[in-house]
TrEMBL record:
One of its GO terms (molecular function) is DNA-binding transcription factor activity. This is XRE family transcriptional regulator. The keyword DNA-binding applies. Pfam families: Cupin_2, HTH_3. GO terms for cellular component: cytosol. The lineage of its organism: Bacteria, Pseudomonadati, Pseudomonadota, Alphaproteobacteria, Rhodobacterales. Residues 5-59 form the HTH cro/C1-type domain. Keywords: DNA-binding. PROSITE patterns: HTH_CROC1. It comes from Primorskyibacter flagellatus. It comes from the Bacteria.
């Protein structure tokens, strides 16, 4: 993803400072992402996409086109864009489809004891989470932890700080769908 971010930034004639101003991310964060020293979390890569003026899927794939109403997309089990961070793996579904109003992803979570967080994640929009395998603990800013078993799901305002982790010693698999809503309530691509 780092090289892709750098290529998109340079093709738009943006400096690190300009992208920092547009994305709200520190120059050092963007530089680390571009050099492959940091794998960004969802909120950071969606801010990068917004700052670059691209759909979040463009960070995962160089190919693709706009979603056209009335069309149908099929994703096979192995069709996804992949990003591994310190705490999560992201499997971006439909990475070649631009302009989606929902961002569907699968992921693998490490046990909470093995994860390191410097902050909770928050971003505009709403979020749906379903546990595909294992048990998941969801920590939400200002609320008690929620433990979800396989097949359980939850829906929440993703502007509230949150993080997910596997409950217990085993990894967990999840399906997450994010929608992006700007401050004015309008749908924003890739948020």
């Amino acid at each position: 993803m780092g090289q892709r971010v750098k290529d998109l930034r340079e093709s738009r004639g943006l400096t690190l400072q300009a992208l920092s101003d547009r994305s709200g991310l520190a120059i050092s964060t963007i530089s680390k992402v571009e050099r492959g020293l940091m794998a960004p979390t969802y909120d950071r890569f969606s801010n990068l996409a917004r700052g670059l003026g691209v759909d979040v899927s463009e960070l995962f794939s160089t190919q693709g086109g706009a979603f056209e109403h009335g069309t149908i997309g099929v994703a096979r089990d192995t069709d996804f864009g992949y990003l591994e961070t310190e705490n999560y793996t992201y499997e971006m579904l439909f990475p070649d489809v631009r302009g989606k109003t929902m961002v569907p992803m699968r992921g693998t979570l490490k046990p909470l004891e093995k994860m390191r967080f410097d902050r909770m994640v928050s971003h505009p929009g709403e979020e749906f989470l379903m546990v595909l395998a294992g048990r998941v603990v969801v920590q939400l800013e200002g609320a008690e932890d929620v433990v979800l078993d396989q097949g359980d799901s939850m829906y929440f305002d993703s502007g509230r700080g949150h993080l997910y982790a596997a409950e217990g010693a085993e990894e967990a698999r999840i399906l997450v769908v994010c929608s992006g809503l700007g401050d004015d309530g309008a749908e924003t691509p890739a948020a």
